[in-house]
Amino acid sequence: MTKSIGLMGRNVGRLAAAAALLAPTAALAQDHAEDWQMYLSEPASPIMERIWGFNGGVMIVITVITVFVMILLATVMIRFNSRRNPVASKTTHNTMIEVLWTVVPVLILVGIAIPSFSLLFAQYDPGRIIDDYNPDEAITLKATGQQWFWQYDYPDIAGIRTITSTPLAEDALGPDDLRLLSVNNPAVVPVGTVVRLQITAGPTGVIHAFALPSMGVKLDAVPGRITESWFRADHEGVFYGQCSELCGRNHYNMPIEVHVVSAEQFDQWVAAMEARDQAGANALLDQWTAERRAAQVAGL
Hints:
single chain, 300 residues, alpha/beta, Helix Hairpins, Immunoglobulin-like, six-stranded mixed sheet, five-stranded mixed sheet, disordered N terminus
């Protein structure tokens, strides 16, 4: 049942997003909201694939219920109006109908709850949906919400110091940068690798939320606490998110930018960061992004 709902849901989602996929910018693997976008971000991780499926499956159920109720209301208004029935019915109840409108909604909710809990558990346990998951091969990315910017740490890589990621000013935006989304120092992860996320906020700060839609991630960043989840990027690209918890006057200006690169490129980036060459590391990211876009445009 869960697989059927997921399959139907993914098909519905892709039909809803088909128009956006036809746009040339969609081929550049820059995952961010588009003008007039009406559906979820394109999935780039196993979790987001399942969120798509669940959302689409529930949409089918909601649509069927809505259509049924509309038909029922129309039937009652037409067949049982005062002109057709000048003498009102004295019926007070119907046992069978009362049993049905109690049992059927319960069954619907139970049917929705099964894939819902399955998805919820999978969001905290990669082994539930990744058959060959090896915890020793995962990397850890810690994101700390400050007022008002993000800081990234790689606890598994001792040579990388804390990365401070602040939004680019409008007069510093390049031709490929995005207003209120691009940052000076993005986070970087390798493609096809499970990333353990640790999210927190500055001890004297406020609550933020780390949201990366294409990866199916949204976690509260609470001062003094660490919340955990995971994602695995299934293709290379530049992915964007934002703080999604109202956190003060600059809440709107806390973007998240994550570059997904190959394993070899990630090693090069790590080497540059360990050498304390942030500018060189960023130059590598710009170079790889330009090369990837050129290759994708050539293949259109």
